[in-house]
Specification:
The structure is a homodimer of 82-residue chains. Chain A has a single domain, classed as Cytochrome c-like domain (Cytochrome Bc1 Complex, Chain D, domain 2). In chain A, 54% of the residues lie in helices and 0% in strands. Chain A is built from five helices and no strands. In chain A, α3 runs antiparallel to α5. The two termini of chain A are 18 Å apart. In chain A, 38% of the residues are buried. The model of chain A has no long low-confidence stretch (mean pLDDT 97). At the A-B interface, α3 of A face α3 of B.
Chain lengths: 82, 82
């Protein structure tokens, strides 16, 4: 996985999850330091429509355009943050 | 929310999410320090069947017996960990 490519893709994530992966809005999760394999599985679940709460609709639309490589890179990037 | 009650309920969570909320298995998320409101929403989504990936089936069965108070207490407990 390419952490720098993930960082570039993450610009759009920052408004909810924080520039450093620490979400200021309490209904959103922190991502910094999270296990990369979990982040990858979560993004794929959103993309596949396997998370269907009203809040999940936001993440489905964010995940839809991501390739498997994008997802791996984003997961590696957030996992690398503290 | 009652952090000590959450801690008592969390015994069954530790095998996957770690005794201190740090998951040793990379496909499972760390919970320590996560935003409580997000943890509460996630547990309610699992309970309501709004997360439907194969892996989510585990969490659905864990969340089913939890009351709203249990969920609030668990979320407060894990959010309080570092």
């Amino acid at each position: 996985a390419d952490i720098n490519a993930g960082k570039a893709k993450a610009a759009v994530c920052a408004s909810c999850h924080g520039a450093d992966g620490h979400a200021a809005i309490p209904t959103y999760p922190h991502l910094a330091g999270q296990n990369a394999a979990y982040l990858e599985a979560a993004l794929k679940a959103y993309k596949a429509g396997q998370r269907t709460s009203p809040q999940a609709a936001i993440m489905k639309s964010m995940a839809m355009p991501l390739s498997d490589d994008d997802i791996k890179n984003l997961a590696a990037y957030y996992s690398s943050l503290k």
